[in-house]
Design goal:
Elements: E1 6-18, H1 27-38, E2 53-54, E3 58-70, E4 74-78, H2 85-92, E5 100-105, E6 109-112, H3 125-135, H4 140-154, H5 169-182, E7 187-190, H6 199-215, E8 219-223, H7 227-233, E9 236-241, E10 244-249, H8 252-259, E11 273-275, E12 286-294, E13 304-305, E14 310-318, E15 325-333, E16 336-342, E17 352-360, E18 368-378, E19 382-395, E20 408-410
Parallel strand pairs: 4-8, 4-9, 6-7, 7-8, 13-19
Antiparallel strand pairs: 1-3, 1-5, 2-3, 9-10, 11-12, 12-14, 14-17, 15-16, 15-18, 17-20, 18-19
Helix pairs in contact: 3-4, 4-5, 5-6
C-alpha cells in the first residue's frame, strides 16, 4: 500500500452466490435440501430473512463496497440480519474470495468469526495455540513467551491439554479469543461469536480489545447486534444494508443512531409497534396492533433497556368467535427461537375487541437484536396470520440473566 496509515482498503468489492448450489455442511442436510427441492417444497435449511439483490440464478451478498480503515481504528460493522456483515468479514479474512473488486491489507489478520474457527478438533488446546501462532508466522520461541498469558486469559488451564473437540462452546470462545488477542497480529476481526460467552467474559474480552487498539495500536473490526458493546468498543462505524455500504462515520454514535432509526439530533423516528394496515384480515382473528409498552402503558421508542420491565400488548378484533383459533407470539435471535408466548389455555375469544398483555420482566432477555413474529391458525383448517415481524434491540449488559416465567394476562 502506498499510504502506510491505511490498514485495509476495499475497492469495488462484490460477492455473488449462485442459487441452487447446495452446501449445508453435511451430506445428510444436503440430501434433505435436494429432496425438498425436487418435490417443490421449501428448503428446510434455507436461511430466512435475507434481503439481498437476487435473481433466479443467484444473488449479490455484497455489491460495490468502497471504504478505507486506518491503523488503530476500532470499527463497528453494523446491519440487520442478511445485510452482508459476515460475508464481508470472511472476505477480509481471506476465507472466501471476492467475485469482483480488490482488498488491500497492510499487516497480519487474526479472525474470530465462528466458534472453533481455525482449531483442529483432535488437537489439544495447547497444540492449537502453537498451530495458530505458526499460521500467523510466529516462531516456536515467540509462542512460548505468550502461551502462559493465553492460557491464563482463557481461564481453562485445567483443560488446556484436552482435545478441543470435548470443549463446550463457551470454552472454545474463551480459548479462541485468547489466542487471537495475544498472538502477534496487526488486525483483529471479531464477529458475533463473543455472544456465546458469559457476561463476565464478554466484558473481559471487550476490555482486551480496547487495550489492543488503544494501547498497542491494533486495528479492530467488530460485528455485533449489541449496540451498547459496539458503542463502548468502537470509535468508527460502517452500516450495511442489502449488501451495500449505506453509511460510514468517523463517529460510531452516528452509525448506531442511523441503524436504530434515529435522526441526527438523536430523536427516535420509529417505535416498537406494529399496526395492521388492512393486509391481514380474518373474521375469526384480525390483529389490530402489536406493541411493546413500559409498565405505565407508554409505547417504547428506540431500544429496550435490559434492566427494565416491559410488556407486549396484542390487540385483536374478532367478528366471528371460534374456539378453534390458536395464536402465539415468537421471539427469535439470530434465526433461532428464543421464546414463545402462547395463547392462554383457558381463554375464549369474545366478539369485537380482545386485548392480551404479556409481561417481560427485567434481565429476562440478554442484550442483542430480536425479531418478534405473530402467528395464528384455525386448528387443522387454515393459517390466519403467518406472520408479521419486526426487530427490536435490547441494550445494556450489567447483570447476569435470571430464569423468569412470562406471565400472560387477558386485559379485556
Amino acid at each position: 500500500m502506498a499510504n502506510n496509515d491505511i490498514a485495509i482498503k476495499v475497492e469495488n468489492l462484490s460477492k455473488y452466490y449462485k442459487l441452487g448450489v447446495i452446501n449445508n455442511g453435511t451430506l445428510f442436510r444436503d440430501i434433505q435440501s435436494w429432496w425438498a427441492r425436487i418435490r417443490g417444497k421449501e428448503d428446510p435449511h434455507a436461511k430466512i430473512g435475507s434481503k439481498y439483490d437476487h435473481s433466479q440464478e443467484g444473488f449479490w451478498a455484497l455489491k460495490d463496497l468502497n471504504f478505507e480503515i486506518k491503523k488503530g481504528d476500532r470499527v463497528g460493522i453494523i446491519g440487520h440480519n442478511g445485510a452482508g456483515k459476515s460475508t464481508l468479514l470472511k472476505l477480509l479474512s481471506q476465507i472466501t474470495a471476492p467475485t469482483e473488486g480488490n482488498i488491500k491489507i497492510n499487516g497480519k489478520i487474526a479472525s474470530l468469526l465462528e466458534v472453533g474457527t481455525g482449531f483442529h478438533p483432535e488437537m489439544t488446546g495447547r497444540e492449537n495455540i502453537y498451530m495458530n501462532g505458526a499460521i500467523l508466522g510466529m516462531s516456536h520461541d515467540e509462542i512460548d513467551k505468550k502461551v502462559d498469558a493465553i492460557i491464563e486469559f482463557s481461564e481453562i488451564g485445567e483443560h488446556i491439554d484436552t482435545p478441543v473437540k470435548r470443549y463446550s462452546s463457551g470454552m472454545y470462545v474463551r480459548l479462541a479469543f485468547a489466542v487471537a488477542a495475544h498472538l502477534d497480529s496487526d488486525i483483529l476481526i471479531a464477529d458475533e461469536v463473543l455472544a456465546v460467552g458469559d457476561a463476565a467474559f464478554q466484558k473481559k474480552a471487550l476490555g482486551k480489545m480496547n487495550e489492543l487498539s488503544s494501547g498497542e495500536g491494533r486495528t479492530v473490526l467488530f460485528v455485533s447486534h449489541n449496540m451498547e458493546q459496539v458503542k463502548n468498543l468502537c470509535n468508527k462505524g460502517i452500516v450495511l444494508e442489502k449488501g451495500r455500504v449505506v453509511r460510514q462515520d468517523d463517529d460510531i454514535e452516528k452509525s448506531i443512531n442511523y441503524y436504530l432509526g434515529k435522526n441526527e439530533d438523536n430523536s427516535d423516528v420509529v417505535t416498537t409497534s406494529w399496526k395492521n394496515d388492512g393486509r391481514v384480515w380474518d373474521e375469526s382473528f384480525n390483529p389490530l396492533s402489536f406493541e411493546i409498552l413500559t409498565i405505565d402503558d407508554k409505547v417504547v421508542t428506540g431500544p429496550l433497556d435490559y434492566e427494565k420491565d416491559y410488556k407486549v400488548r396484542l390487540t385483536v378484533d374478532v367478528k366471528k368467535p371460534d374456539s378453534n383459533v390458536d395464536f402465539w407470539i415468537a421471539c427469535y435471535k439470530g434465526g433461532e427461537l428464543f421464546f414463545n408466548l402462547p395463547m392462554p389455555s383457558d381463554f375464549k375469544f369474545k366478539k369485537n375487541k380482545n386485548v392480551f398483555d404479556f409481561f417481560m420482566p427485567k434481565t429476562t432477555i440478554l442484550p442483542g437484536l430480536y425479531t418478534f413474529t405473530l402467528g395464528s391458525s384455525l386448528k387443522n383448517i387454515k393459517w390466519i396470520v403467518n406472520s408479521f415481524e419486526f426487530e427490536i434491540t435490547i441494550m445494556t449488559t450489567i447483570l447476569s440473566p435470571k430464569q423468569r416465567i412470562f406471565e400472560t394476562m387477558v386485559v379485556c
